[in-house]
């Protein structure tokens, strides 16, 4: 998915893609010392291109960083639908985090400069990790431009992506960033022992062919997925027993899911996916999850399919164990409800030899 291009100066440019991700099982336990299984999908992606240049330049996107409007009403409508934030801030943040990490770890960087451009087709506010995809793709460009891919361990890179987002006040966990840095299907163990000792989890790539056929449901105008974690996090920190025990159970679903995938036990996967959503609903409550998000899950369940959020809301991953006839019923239900349904295309691992060597 990565490709070298030629800039207008004839010097080699670098372009990397980072794919949207689906949290398959165990989310949101990644921020509660739990376990998760996630994978990247080829349906949507963000791309970042780096070209050598005289100065460091971060190029605004002509749509996502729009600063020219037809009228005041156009500006207002744009802000109400898209918010204030484009991708420029994300690119600037990862540049800062990358530079500071290299400085702190005595990694020497050459003094040449660059221009960064980005593009994305990941639907906004769908819980498919659109922001981290931009940051992850940019980090890959920086690693190659400065030729330090072998010096920054693969396991550390998701932390850099997350730290860049934290710079901007984005509340999130490592799961999405691990999935996008590694690519493919990944089992993640975020137990406190590992996090305290290593500063990161234990990440185990799995064979993408273990996954059954899956579908994605999302809305054209989804709700905001960025506010979902807040109250539950505080209750967990306060020692709320319901939240602590429920989150532990959510993490265990990923362990059971790994076994079910390896054994191709699809009936078990149905149970685990549904249980994952039910536990989330129990902890967060309907008001926090949002009526539209719950309806996407219920649409799938009405035809007997398993369903759960891909992330914190905005999109749902669905498994139809009965095959094409059940998918047809799901298509009809989604059409009635005004939701978009499409088959999931699994994006394979994006690791190269240098990445694997960096595992140490």
Describe this structure in words.
InterPro entries: GHMP_kinase_C_dom, GHMP_kinase_C_sf, GHMP_kinase_N_dom, Glucuronokinase-like, Ribosomal_Su5_D2-typ_SF. Pfam families: GHMP_kinases_C, GHMP_kinases_N. Keywords: ATP-binding, Nucleotide-binding. Residues 259-324 form the GHMP kinase C-terminal domain. Residues 103-184 form the GHMP kinase N-terminal domain. With 360 residues, this protein is α+β, with helices and mostly antiparallel strands. Helix content is 43%, strand content 21%. It is built from 13 helices and 11 strands. The protein has helices at 72-82, 88-104, 130-145, 157-167, 175-182, 192-198, 230-237, 241-262, 266-284, 286-289, 291-302, 324-337, 353-358, and strands spanning 3-6, 12-25, 35-53, 57-58, 113-120, 185-189, 202-206, 215-218, 306-309, 315-319, 340-343. The strands form 2 sheets. Strands 1, 2, 3, 4, 5, 6 and 7 form a 7-stranded mixed β-sheet that branches. Strands 9-10-8-11 form a 4-stranded antiparallel β-sheet. A hairpin with a 5-residue loop joins β9 (306-309) and β10 (315-319). α4 crosses α5 (175-182) and α11 (291-302) packs antiparallel against α12. The longest helix is centred in the last third of the chain and has 22 residues, at 241-262. It is globular. The protein starts with a strand and ends with a helix. 44% of the residues are buried. Residues 1-10 and 224-229 have low confidence and may be disordered.
Which helices and strands, and how do they pair?
Blueprint: E1 3-6, E2 12-25, E3 35-53, E4 57-58, H1 72-82, H2 88-104, E5 113-120, H3 130-145, H4 157-167, H5 175-182, E6 185-189, H6 192-198, E7 202-206, E8 215-218, H7 230-237, H8 241-262, H9 266-284, H10 286-289, H11 291-302, E9 306-309, E10 315-319, H12 324-337, E11 340-343, H13 353-358
Parallel strand pairs: 4-5
Antiparallel strand pairs: 1-2, 2-3, 3-5, 3-6, 6-7, 8-10, 8-11, 9-10
Helix pairs in contact: 2-3, 2-4, 3-4, 3-5, 4-5, 8-9, 11-12
């Amino acid at each position: 998915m990565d490709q070298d291009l030629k800039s207008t100066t004839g010097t080699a440019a670098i372009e990397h893609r980072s794919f949207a991700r689906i949290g398959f099982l165990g989310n949101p336990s990644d921020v509660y010392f739990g376990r998760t299984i996630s994978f990247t999908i080829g349906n949507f992606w963000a791309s970042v291109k780096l070209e050598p240049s005289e100065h460091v330049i971060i190029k605004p996107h002509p749509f996502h960083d729009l600063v020219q409007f037809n009228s005041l009403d156009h500006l207002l409508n744009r802000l109400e639908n898209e918010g204030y934030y484009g991708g420029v801030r994300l690119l600037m943040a990862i540049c800062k985090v990358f530079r500071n990490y290299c400085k702190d770890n005595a990694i020497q960087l050459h003094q040449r400069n660059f221009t960064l451009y980005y593009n994305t087709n990941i639907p906004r506010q769908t819980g498919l990790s659109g922001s981290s995809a931009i940051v992850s793709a940019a980090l890959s460009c920086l690693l190659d431009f400065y030729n330090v891919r072998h010096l920054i361990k693969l396991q550390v890179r998701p932390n850099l992506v997350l730290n860049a987002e934290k710079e901007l006040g984005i509340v999130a966990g490592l799961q999405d960033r691990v999935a996008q840095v590694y690519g493919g299907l990944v089992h993640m163990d975020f137990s406190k022992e590992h996090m305290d000792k290593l500063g990161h989890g234990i990440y185990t790539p799995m064979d993408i062919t273990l996954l059954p056929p899956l579908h994605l449901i999302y809305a054209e105008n989804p709700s905001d997925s960025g506010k979902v974690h807040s109250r539950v996090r505080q209750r967990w920190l306060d020692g709320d027993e319901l939240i602590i025990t429920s989150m532990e159970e959510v993490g265990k679903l990923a362990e059971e899911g790994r076994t079910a995938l390896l054994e191709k036990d699809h009936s078990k996967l149905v149970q685990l996916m549904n249980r994952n959503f039910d536990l989330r609903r129990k902890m967060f409550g309907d008001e926090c999850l949002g009526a539209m998000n719950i309806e996407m899950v219920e649409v799938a369940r009405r035809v007997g399919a398993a369903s759960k959020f891909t992330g914190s809301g905005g999109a749902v991953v669905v498994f139809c164990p009965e095959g094409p006839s059940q998918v047809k019923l799901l298509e009809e239900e989604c059409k009635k409800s005004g939701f978009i349904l499409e088959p999931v295309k699994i994006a394979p691992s994006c690791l190269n030899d240098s990445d694997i060597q960096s595992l140490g």
